[in-house]
Amino acid sequence: MKIRIRTATAPGERGVALLYAIFGAFAAAGMVSLMLAMGTVTNDQAALKREQVEGRYLTEGAIEFARKEIQTALANWGQPRANGSVRIGGVDVPYTVRTTGGDAVVTTPDGIQQRTVGYEVRAVTEVGGSSVESYRVINAVSTPIFQFAVFYTEDLEVLPGPDMTLGGRVHTNGDMYLGSGGVLTMDTNYVRSVGNMYRLRKNETSASGDVMIRKYVDNPFDLSEPEEYVRMDSEDQLAADYGIDTISGYDSNFTNGHDADGDGSYYGEGDLLPFVQGALEFWSEPDGYTGSGNTVLTGEHQVTEAVAPSIGSIKLYEEVESGGDFIEDPTNPGHYIPAPAGLGTHNKGFFYENADLAVVVDIDGGLTIYDGQGNDITSAAEGSIELGEILDTRQSQSTSDTTDLVVIDLEALQNTLQDIWPGNGLIYVGHEGMDEGVGAKSVKLINGFELETALTTVCEGQVYIEGDFNTLNKKGAAVIGDAVSLLSNDWDDSKVAGATLTRASETTYNVAIITGNQETVGNDYNGGLENLPRFHENWTGIGCNISGSFVNAWESDWATEPWSYGGDRYKAPHRNWNYDPDFNDAANLPPFTPLTVTASDVVSW
């Protein structure tokens, strides 16, 4: 029997089918509409997400900017502004800053005194239809800059020929390059670089000698603390002791470690941990020591920048964005005159503004001396402050040209009929018409073996110290300048260009130094820390004794001639250089000691 499949539809059935078809069409249309609606919602959500991410990027960027502003303001003796704005990716992002009420002074185990102030930073921006806010609480930690033995804002190079010992904290905001012709001993619990640490010269040549760094103890100034050193190996030392071929030694370039037996562990015989991990072990506390910490840390260990004052603080007149009190005299370039209210381009530099004794040499070479109230006391300083000159064969490049300077006889200054010694301990010397080379005008301090009170001397140009300084009844003392030169007790201004160097004699300086330097470029070495204070005599075998602090806070503006050795420039002394542990007590610091400021994030939301 055949089965017939019916394909035709009766009239009633055709109506039902049509109805189903209509319902199906509506259902399909609804599904399409729903899918379109869902697609629209998804797109809207994605757009919202993008706006929020972009807004977060902008607000976090503004907070980072404000964070640096807080550090910079505090380091330059100011207060952070309550609100501001920064342009990021073409968008102006406003922010506000307020203190959280937290303000504490803490003394570390090794005596360093730090002040911590809390700040809340809020940034807000509009992106598309979204408003995004970000908040962060920041702790700004201020440390007197002279509580560092060595502080550099850029790369630090330490490569002395003879043996050298560094005690006290050593910090650079850049990279650190370590080496020695003999033995460099770092007797400290604090060796820090915000960048990397290298066991070679900056021009990438191998650095010989030994670099010995002390394992961490809470207070390295305490003679009862254990003293244990670990060598930071050079390229040659790693090759000799481990048979390892490296770029530069045991430093930031040693990223892969050395697994001698290939067992995947770095703790077997002949193994070496990668530097980042190894530094935490090798220069941690000695075995059995109750305290804990790490001496050697870099940016990879989260070391952050410590902001220091800008070079503008030492200038006679510092350029400002708006509302200055002075303008340059259009008829006498290099000379500044009072400006109409709010229309000036410059203000007095910080140290000039605050000095209780200010010595100013005008563009024509005239000398005027002011007290802290701006009174002219030139006649009262007669016999103790006068104009002079000096042959500086580094700046004059072996010609007979001399550099103009102000000579301050500190012993005579203390014995003037009218007491003009600065009551706040700050002397400032400024020259109009500063220039490079022999135009880098200066100040020379003489007869400073005993100071009436603690003293800081600042000059926009170079500072020379002649003879024993602050050696009798020592006070807190500092010199701050574009460059700093040390002249021995036997200096008598008889040096002649191109002739045999005059012979130095042993001299002692109890003084903290803030100065500029030049950068190492290619094979042109800048002289390193060992030549941060400049020399101009034959010091061979002669002791140069310094107790204080060594700070390189900027690149020199005026004393710009490159480092050069021998000839009629200088020959190096026997360097007996030490951090002055008296500076661990803030009461012993020089007047107007600047601050370095670090910042750490507490919480964000």
Structural overview:
It is a single chain. With 605 residues, the protein is α/β, with parallel strands linked by helices. Helices cover 15% and strands 34% of the residues. It has 5 helices and 31 strands. The protein has a 15-stranded mixed beta sheet that branches. A 5-stranded antiparallel beta sheet has the order 1-2-3-4-31. The longest helix is centred in the N-terminal third of the chain and has 65 residues, at 11-75. The relative contact order is 0.11.
Sequence-ordered SSE layout with sheet pairings:
Blueprint: H1 11-75, E1 83-88, E2 91-107, E3 113-127, E4 130-144, E5 150-152, E6 156-158, E7 164-167, E8 170-172, E9 176-178, E10 183-187, E11 191-193, E12 197-198, E13 210-214, E14 229-231, H2 235-242, H3 275-282, E15 296-297, E16 317-324, E17 326-328, E18 336-338, E19 344-348, H4 350-354, E20 357-361, E21 367-371, E22 385-390, E23 403-409, H5 410-413, E24 426-431, E25 442-446, E26 455-466, E27 477-487, E28 507-517, E29 543-555, E30 574-579, E31 595-604
Parallel strand pairs: 5-8, 5-29, 6-9, 7-10, 8-11, 9-12, 10-13, 11-15, 20-24, 23-25, 24-26, 25-26, 26-27, 27-28, 28-29, 29-30
Antiparallel strand pairs: 1-2, 2-3, 3-4, 4-31, 13-14, 16-19, 17-18, 20-21, 22-23
